[in-house]
Amino acid sequence: MSTELDTRPRLAARPAALIGVLALLAALAAGHLVAGFVGPNASPYLAVGNSAIDVTPSWLKDFAVSTFGTHDKVVLLLGMAVVLLGLAVLAGLLSRRSHLPGLVLVAVFGAVGVLAAYDRPDLGQIAIVAPLASLLVGVGVFTWLHRLAWSQTVSTPDRRRFLKTAVGVAAGAGVAGLAGQLIGSRKDAEGSRAAVGRLVPARPAPAIPADADFAKLGTPPFLTSNRDFYRIDTALVVPQVRAEDWRLRIHGMVEREVTFGYADIRDRPLVERSITLTCVSNEVGGPYISTANFLGVELRDLLDEAGVKPGAEQLFSTSADGWTCGTPVDAVLDPRRGALLAIGMNGEPLPVEHGFPARMVVPGLYGYVSATKWVTDLEVTTWKARRAYWLDRGWGERGPIKTQSRIDAPKGFANVPAGKLIVAGIAWAQHTGIEKVEVRLDNGPWQPATLSTVVNDDTWRMWQAELQVSPGGHQVSARATDKSGYPQTGERVGTVPDGATGWHTIRFDAK
Q1: Rg (CA), the chain
Q2: To the nearest whole percent, how much of the chain has pLDDT over 90?
Q3: Residue 468 in contact with residue 421, Cβ under 8 Å?
Q4: CA 438 and chain centroid, separation
Q5: Superfamily (CATH H level) for 196-393
Q6: Eight-state DSSP code of residue 493
Q7: Which member of 117, 290, 328, 497 has the greatest number of CB atoms within 10 A?
Q8: Are 270 and 344 in contact (CB under 8 A)?
Q9: DSSP string, 441-490
Q10: pLDDT, tens digit (0-9, with 9 covering 90-100), for 199-212
Q11: For 45-108, what is the HEC assignment?
Q12: pTM of the predicted model, to two decimals?
């Protein structure tokens, strides 16, 4: 026995799918508009994306970084867009006889956005009004358009009305989304950064010697430009923090809680240091290592003003976007290590994507335990009391950088002339220093490489070696020995839990 619903005519597939897509666009635009007032990350699209990053397994994040590099977040956003469009089309197609199936799906979308925003550590409770607006608008637009589309099956004028309304909804969504973007950009971090002006160190870094790199032979320049400095973080959208609004709170196991503003830091005597940073996600031979002149104040001095209590083990730092990091207190307080609260980089205020207004820089530790960008909170505590973002995801606790080397020239699978071949690259063992580098052609003996002039033990060191190669296929490997006498291990280990190991080996053809 057929029901009334079975006998009703169905919407055509195209307008049904269009209803789902327009309802999605209207919902996202409404949420983005409201998020402009309560916080950009409250936008449902971004809130869900950030939550997706947080729940992604470490192995999958590692794969994304190694595969897509700094474009991993763009790939995530594009993937989300494709999935959402597909589900929106499905919601419309399921509702060709009745709007109820699609309405349920739209409501589920909205609920996911509400939960994602509610769970964000960088958002207050008011932030859920953005995904709630998305939910209400999505349900309302879906119901409204479905009713209009249904009436078009019996009336040509209503068909025109549906099309006009669809165009209006699309235009309104575009205007609302653009308005949300403009309102959200009122916190102009770039403008604030430009207003900071020139930062002058009281103690500038020593000048970099001309022979500190072998860039003419294929190594990177000793100092990495701000534009080329690697960037790996969990921020789906770069936090926009103005210097005028920035505060750093130091609390926890201290004698007295202290808070600093940007002017409090800038007005102090600034120290500049050449420091190489390395990401724990760097595979053997990987690109995630760069060097800059960082400018700031001694982090140890700020903690001394607060008065660190006995028994403190961890400096638990929090970024403006809610990301957390645990750094060994003894490393921060060690005067020989020179940990900085940095506000400048390569002669200018920190770029926004690299942490403006301020970030941590602790030499000798991988970035995931030492280099919090957009830092706003420092809690002195113990390892047991607080667990940082990556520690909860299976990574190591203390993260000392491992002695490593990389071959930069020739590139893997290159074709080179037979005869004399110059092999060049970099080696690093931050806070210990590089003593020597050796190279090996095929399975022959290890041969010493020529090292560049040392700048300091917290930076990388360049090397080059001359080899004689006969026609045919070859491979060359490199290994470093640090100043403690430790030779770089050839055992291949992945990045998890505390950094990759192994000799970088490339293959090439000589003709």
Answers
A1: 28
A2: 65
A3: yes
A4: 34
A5: Oxidoreductase, molybdopterin-binding domain (3.90.420.10)
A6: B
A7: 117
A8: yes
A9: ETTS--EEPEEPPP--TTS-EEEEEEEEE-SEEEEEEEEEEETTSPBPP-
A10: 999 999 999 999 99
A11: HHHHHHHHHHHCCHHHHHHHHHHHHHHHHHHHHHHHHHHHHHHHHHHHHCCCCCCHHHHHHHHH
A12: 0.85
Using alpha carbons, select from 136, 163, 167 the residue that is nearest to residue 148. 163
Integer Cα distance of 363 and 453 in angstroms: 19
Give residue 305's identity as a one-letter amino acid code.
E
Pick the CATH number of 404-510 from 3.40.50.720, 2.60.40.650, 3.40.50.1240, 1.10.1740.10: 2.60.40.650
Angle CA(97)–CA(103)–CA(109) in degrees, nearest 5?
A: 140
Which two tokens mark 410?
């020739």
* Tokens matching residue 323: 């990301």
CA distance 407 to 427: 9
What token pair was written down for 381? 């505590």
Query: Which is nearest to 230 in space by CA: 63, 323, 366?
Result: 366
E strands, 402-451, in order:
404-409, 415-416, 419-428, 434-441, 447-448, 450-451
For 479, the token pair is 């290994």
Three-state helix/strand/coil letters over 158-208: HHHHHHHHHHHHHHHHHHHHHHHHHHHCCCCHHHHHHHHCCCCCCECCCCC
**pLDDT tens readout for residues 281-291:** 999 999 999 99
CB 395 within 8 A of CB 371: no
**Hey, where are the domains in the chain?**
9-184, 196-393, 404-510
Which residues does 353 contact at the CB level (< 8 Å), separation at least 6?
Answer: 231, 238
**352, 238 Cβ separation under 8 angstroms:** yes
- Band (155; pLDDT cuts 50, 70, 90): low
Q: DSSP letters along 214-262, please?
A: -GGGTPPPSSPPTTTS----S-SS-----TTT-EEEEEESBSS-EEEEH
Distance CA 251, CA 253 (A): 7
Q: What is the pLDDT of residues 464-484, one digit of tens each?
A: 999 999 999 999 999 999 999
Query: Residue 29: what residue type?
Result: A
Cα dist from 213 to 217, 221, 454, 456, whole Å: 9, 6, 9, 13
Residues in the chain: 511
For 167, list phi and psi in degrees, rounded to 5: -65, -40
Q: Which two tokens stand for residue 478?
A: 């490199």
